[in-house]
Design goal:
This protein has five helices and five strands; from the N terminus they run αβαβαβαββα. By secondary structure, it is an alpha/beta fold. The protein has a five-stranded mixed β-sheet, with helices on both faces. It is globular, with a radius of gyration of 14 Å. The N and C termini lie far apart (29 Å).
Amino acid sequence: MKETKMLEEPIHVTDLAFDKTVMQASIPVIVDFWAPWCGPCKMVAPVLEKLAKEYSGKLLIAKVNVDDNPESAGKFDIRNIPTMLFISNGKVVHMQVGALPEVILRSIVTQFMAVVQKASVATN
C-alpha cells in the first residue's frame, strides 16, 4: 500500500538513484529538473502534484534538484529550469523547457501518454 501512495505524489530522485528510478522505470516518467530558488519551478510544482495523483500507477513524476544533483542535469544538458523530460522505456520522448500554464502542460502530458500507449500497442 505504501508504494502506491508514493506514486500519488512526485518523488525526489538523486544522481545515484536516477538510472534505476527513471531510466529503468516500467511506466512513463516526467522528470522535473528544478531548484528551490526558482520561481517558475514553484509555479509548475502544484500542477505536477495534481498530475501525479491523477495518473497514479500509470505515470511517475520525478523531481531532480539541480543544485544537489548536477550529474543528472549535466547528462541531459539541462541549462534552464524548470526543464521537464518525458521519458518512456529509457528514452527521452520530449523535452519541455520553461514553466507552462496548467492547461498547456496537461495537453502535453495527454499527448505523451497517447504516444506511449500507441508505441506499447505496436510492440505487443
